[in-house]
Amino acid sequence: MGVDALLYNSTRGREGGYTAAMAIAGGLAGDGGLFVPEEAPLLPEGAIDAMAPMRYEERAEYVLREFLDDFGGGELARYTREAYGTGKFDADGAAPVRSLAGGDYFLELWHGPTCAFKDMALQILPSLMTAALQKTGDGRDVCVLAATSGDTGKAALEGFRDVGRTKVIVFYPRDGVSDIQRLQMTTQEGENVLVAAVEGNFDDAQAGVKNIFSDARLRERLTARGVFLSSANSINWGRLAPQIAYYVSAYCDLVNNGSVGRGEHINFCVPTGNFGNILAGFYAKKMGLPIAKLICASNRNDVLTQFINTGVYDRNREFYTTTSPSMDILVSSNLERLLYEMSGSDGTAVNGYMEALAREGRYAVSGAVRELIAGSFECGSCTDADAGRAIADIFNRHGYLIDPHTAVAYEVLRRYRERTGDGAPTVVVSTASPYKFCGSVLDALGCGAGGADMIDALRAATGTVAPAPLTALRGKRERFTRTVPRGGMLAAVEEFCL
Ligand SMILES: *Cc1c(COP(=O)(O)O)cnc(C)c1O
C-alpha cells in the first residue's frame, strides 16, 4: 500500500475523500454522483512483463491492488482466486483471447456461470462488498438491487445467492430479454433472491431502481431494521474495477503470442450499453496500457454514437427493441464518469449536464470536452440485419460463432477500418455466449425458428458446444413468474426486505 491512499470523489463534486471500501459499500455517492478515483494509478514500469506469465486471477489481483489500496494483497489474492481460478469459468484463463486467421481478435468474456461478461465483475463483487462493509465497520445487512437488460440480473443473482447477510432483488423489462435470459432468472435458486418482471423497457426498470435508492422513507424504514440498499449495477465502483483487469490481461496475451510488440498500441472495440465495459477500458488506458482507440459500438439505439460524434447527448428519441437487448439503453449511466474525467474533474459541470438530462432529456458538452473524448474514442452503430450478416459471415469463413452483441462490435469495427484505414491490431470485446441468443443467431444463419429446443437446434446447425449452465436450464422449475407495474417496484422491495 502506498503512503498516500487512493481516494475516491463523487462525479457531482460535493463529496470526496472516500476510501475504495467506502465507495464500494456505498454504491452511489450521497450527492447522487458516481465514485471515481481521484487519480488513476499508473502501471509501474515493467508491469506488462511482470504480468505476462501470470494466470488471469493473478493479473486481476495485480490490477485491483492498484485501485483498491485499502484492501490487503493477501485478501485480494484470495478473492481473485475464488472468483476466477476455481473452476467457475469453463476456459483455461477466465478471459481468453481467440485469434482468427486474418488478424481478428476476440476477448471472450463469457466463460463464467451465466455466460455473459457481467460474471467478470459479479463473481468477485460479493467478496469485495462483504469486505468493504467490514472495513467501514458497517454492521448492517445488505439488500442488493439491480435493474437488468438481461445479463446483469442473472450474474448478480448467481454472485450473491446465499451470501450471508445479503438479499438480492432483480428487476428485468418484461418484453426486453431473450427467452434464455428470462429462464436463467426465473429459475434462479437460493434463499435470498427475488426476481420480478417490470412493465416497460430497461430505462424504466433502471429509473425505478434509481427512485427506490432516493426514497428517503424507505431508507429510514430499512435502517430501522438494520438493512441498507446497495447496487449491483455498474454504477458501483466494485463492478468497474474488476473489469479493468481484462483489458490488461488481453494485452498480455497478445504480447505473449507475438501478435503485438511490447509497447505497441492496440484498439478495443466494445459493444456498449450502459458504458461500463468500455469505461473500464478507458481506465486501463489512463493507467498507461498502450491503447490507441476505444471504439464504442451501438445498435440502433445509437445515442452514444450521436454523442461522440456531435457532443450532444439526447435521449428524446425512439427506443428500439433489438436482437442485442443488453445494449437497448438510452441513458448510459457510466458516461457520467467519463464526463467527469474529460471536464478536468469539474463536478459542477457534470452536475449541470445531469440536471439538464433529468430536466430536458438532453445536454451538450463544450467543444473542448468533445475533442478530448474524440482523442480516445471512436464510435459507430449498425442495425440488427447488419449484425446478423456479420454473424453469418464470420461463421461461414471461420466456423466461429458470435452472439448479436459481439456482432454489432465486429460490424462496427469492419466499417471503422474501411472508413479510416486504421490497421492497428484491434480486439473485439466478446460479451456473451451465442447460446444466450439462440433465436437471433439461428435467424442470422438462415436456420429458421429452430423448434422447441433452440439450444439443440443451434448445436445441430453449427456443430458448436453449448455451455453447460444453459443446457442445464432444461426442465428447471420457474420460481419467479411475477410481473409488476412500474409503480409497483417499491412495494416489491418493501415486501421482501421489511
Ligand atoms: C451488459 C452487456 C453489454 C453492455 O455493456 P455495458 O457495460 O452496459 O456498456 C453488452 N453486451 C452484453 C452481452 C451485455 O451483457
Largest sheet: 6 strands, mixed
DSSP strand content: 5-15%
* Average residue pLDDT: 94
| CA-atom Rg in angstroms | 21 Å
What is shown here, in short?
The chain has helices at 20-26, 47-51, 56-67, 73-84, 118-122, 125-135, 151-160, 179-186, 202-213, 216-224, 237-256, 276-286, 303-310, 335-342, 347-360, 367-376, 384-398, 404-420, 438-444, 454-462, 468-471, 489-497; strands spanning 8-10, 35-37, 97-100, 104-108, 141-147, 166-173, 193-198, 227-231, 266-271, 291-298, 312-314, 362-364, 377-381, 426-430, 483-484.
Please explain how this structure is put together.
With 498 residues, this protein is α/β, with parallel strands linked by helices. It has a domain at 97-113 and 240-440: Rossmann fold (3-Layer(aba) Sandwich). The protein has 22 helices and 15 strands. The protein has helices spanning 20-26, 47-51, 56-67, 73-84, 118-122, 125-135, 151-160, 179-186, 202-213, 216-224, 237-256, 276-286, 303-310, 335-342, 347-360, 367-376, 384-398, 404-420, 438-444, 454-462, 468-471, 489-497, and strands spanning 8-10, 35-37, 97-100, 104-108, 141-147, 166-173, 193-198, 227-231, 266-271, 291-298, 312-314, 362-364, 377-381, 426-430, 483-484. The protein has a 6-stranded mixed β-sheet with strand order 3-4-14-9-10-13, sandwiched between helices. Strands 8-5-6-7-15 form a 5-stranded parallel β-sheet, with helices on both faces. β5 (141-147), α7 and β6 form a beta-alpha-beta unit. The relative contact order is 0.14. Bound molecules: pyridoxal-5'-phosphate.
